[in-house]
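Translate sequence into structure tokens.
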Amino acid sequence: MPDSPEELIAFFSRHVDGVAFNRHGQHHLLACEGALTKLRAFSLNDPNLACVVPEFQARLDAARSSLKRSAFRIVAGSIIAFLALLSFVSFMAGNQTGRHARARDEVQKLIGQGRFKEARVRAQDLESKQDVDQMFQMIDKAEKSSKLRSQ
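Result follows.
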């Protein structure tokens, strides 16, 4: 930290812009507060410096509030992005489950109607190989029992 008023003013000016617009904003904020404290001590003996200190305090307050707003924006943006991602994942999971359940219901309906060829075609649209195999087994059993009943 500089020891002369002129160097403190330059030091403060360099760091005050970094408070809100830099990822090391807290470091710049502490540097500005330290420089402003020293400037207040020097202003007790220098009336010209006493006029400048309130302006510097106002600049620091504005930078501090800007830092808080940017931190709030980052937090709010992160929360919004997380909620959007969560909503998308929930929608996709529900959509997949619903589509899967509708496909299984449709296959079972076709089996119940005795439309086994159509049921096989629709069963092939299921995403999981295990589900396709289960449906084919179900179709085969229903088809065999249908043939036995008709004999």
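Note: The two ends are 102 Å apart (CA to CA).
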